Amino acid sequence: MRLYAIPILKNRWAYYCHSTLPATSRLTRMVAWSNKKWEQLDKAETDSWKKKLYVRGSNIMNQLDYQEWFFKSVPSKEEVEKPLEKVWIYHPSLLDKTELDHELKALLKERIPYHKKYMRYSAYWVPLACTFAIVPLVPNLPLAYNLFRLYSHYKALKGAEHLKTLVDYGNIEYETDPRLDEIMDGISLVDPHELIFPDASKPDLVGLEQDLEGVLNPKDIRRLVEILDVPGLEIELSRARLQILKSILYCSELCRMQDVNHHGPKIPSAIKPSSSPPSSPLLDPFYSSFNHHDRRTSVTISKSSRSHQDLFGSISSSSQSSLPRYSLN
Question: Which residue positions does the secretion signal occupy (predicted)?
């Protein structure tokens, strides 16, 4: 097992776990079988309900926090035949290992109780979701979704706990990778406040998937996959990149609105930040997209007008600090 820390912007990066450990648990094998069945829906006819279900389900899964996907990819202690003595985190030299270590510890401290809490919520809602089975000829989507979230939180929790054990016992080592330096040296990454979107007056989420100056772009991600020979890296980095850019775009819109209205932007109630999570995991994807506050999203916009530089400058002072992960779709 080896980990990678790949920068998306100058002070924003994503982790990726590449593990070749065999799946030994019955639960893991069952989930792998379910994933194959799920992917078969993509081969259905374009206008069929199976294809539409696959597209909608894939969109929901892509809205889940990229950090959750990272922890899910870390094998649990039960899946490892013998304890791992050393796990290496490879990173380009532009990332400081002290900063990486501090950020990883803080991330583990925040995510473990989060996944533990929402794993329980998902379990509580499973019996209620079972009642939807009384409707004939209709797939029980609420039950399927709650079971998926239950397993997702469980897998992320076990991966985070295993990683925390490795960190606590000093089994994590950081090492620069010349192959990453070869790629990153040709990219001039910028801070969030320096990022320029194609048309700030009309935010286009589709445009975020295209190349942007100062960002790790799709062509760079494909090159990383080829050099590192890690096929799964492309999906995870693309997801992390899109979520990070969405959060920056949304906050830039808040700044623009606040420049117009000194009393603060009028945010629609559907996407207004909330200090407390919803009680139902049925709303979990929307919570993750709109209202999720973690250690890296503690940004307060004052009621007085602030410039883009004021907002983003205060954020970039902390390690791997970020903006709220809001989604506009």
Answer: none
